[in-house]
Here is the input.
Amino acid sequence: MATDLVKVEHISKAFSGVTALDDARFDLRPGEVHALLGENGAGKSTLMKIISGVYRRDSGDFYVNGEKIPGDLTPQSAQNLGIGIIHQELNLCPHLTVAENIFLNREFTVSGFLNEKKQNEAVKQYLKTLNLNIDPATPVRNLPVSKQQMVEICKTLSMNARIIIMDEPTSALTEKEIDDLFKVIAMLKAEGHGIIYISHRLEELSRIVDRVTILRDGKYVKTLNFAETNLPEIISLMVGRALTEKFPRIEVERGEKVLEVKNLSSLHGVGVKKVSFNLYKGEILAFAGLMGAGRSEVVRAISGADRMSEGEIRINGKLAKIHAPREAIVQGLFCAPEDRKRDGLCVKMTLAENITLPSLDIVSKLGVILRKLESKKSKEMVQSLKIKTPSVDQYVRNLSGGNQQKVVVGKWLMRNARIVIFDEPTRGIDVASKIEIYNIINDLKKNGIGVMFVSSELPEVLGMSDRIMVMCNGRITAELITKNTNQEEILKYATQYS
Ligand SMILES: Nc1ncnc2c1ncn2[C@@H]1O[C@H](COP(=O)(O)OP(=O)(O)OP(=O)(O)O)[C@@H](O)[C@H]1O
Ligand SMILES: [Mg+2]
Here is the structure.
């Protein structure tokens, strides 16, 4: 049998006394896709950061191509050994161009001078492999999240790594981009590369995966050949119990109109053209459509993050003038945004500070923050959302990706909201925590709050909403009653360009 590209055994790692990995192991063979699975906070990213030299292991053995690596790796030495990683959270420099990001610190130079033309040509080649139609000279901050993710993937591919770690690469991609990525993965596999694949979108595993390894609470659980297992078995190994009821739908009688949007247009992003809809108390309204349909732009315009160019918004029948998110908040409209790192969280602040940030009036007195109260309120939220953290004083950047998402949700739940809007609420969230988020959404619904959510996952749209607005190309193409519709009908309207 061929030598393993990578093998790690007995890996342990603690962060200031909190165990992230405890005797974990993993191995990767040439020409395989090996998925690493586990709940939020199970230690997947930590193990991958150890393999790619970002973190040092506390203990354990490390082999690359059968040879023992005695000391610690650094990102540079890992790269020299052919290990490349696509990180879960985007790591690009927003103000630099696509090409500059891809070749950061490895610039094409001729006698010390940057050869921009040659660099752009090289980048174009990589973009082409991924079927990406973007100009290498575009600043990354002008690209939507999904394209940024593709640039991140391009960057790793351009390093010619033999061992490629993909930490949730598809969480922000469109269906088409996922197809393109999977083609590239098949190609890399055929060339003998090994791919370590992390994802919470378990449904997609069957398209690419050869083996799976499951971690739970930092411990190794099991490695299985994908062909010899099934999703229910994988899920029960991940969560330690069988999960029932994926979408805990509840029936609530819908109340009065709480939000009325009329002829809303916006020139931001892909644009929004004359969008009108109503939202009622105790109702869950989903916005479905393909990535780039304008759903996030609607959310951004309503919540004051973008300026609307035309239209009218009424909350409880009263004309609402919203020019900034704080004005929306004052009127009881809250939004949990799509890009949590950019819009939703201050990663350099603690969990408690983040959760209470929109609620400073509740946790302060005469302009002074009452730290004890802040801590008490945050602890309640950590408990009710089951956020996995050693304490509320933990910096948000040290939380696992899925737990960061829960903090975003927790922020808005602190307030007494009338309308809560979620943009891709369960992106990067594990199966069990997804159900927790659905329960939160249901709790809001039960309390007479109007809930609106944008989601690219049709099973979630169909499983949780009462009504669906389908968008395509900045317009609403259909309004559907969830119980009378299906996936095919939604997709038909989602692709109705005209
Ligand atoms: N730099 C750090 N400092 C302190 N604690 C950390 C740090 N990085 C990770 N942790 C903790 O280690 C544990 C494992 O986190 P990790 O990010 O590896 O989880 P994960 O399996 O990748 O989860 P997710 O699916 O949510 O991305 C978590 O409890 C997390 O809070
Ligand atoms: Mg992770």
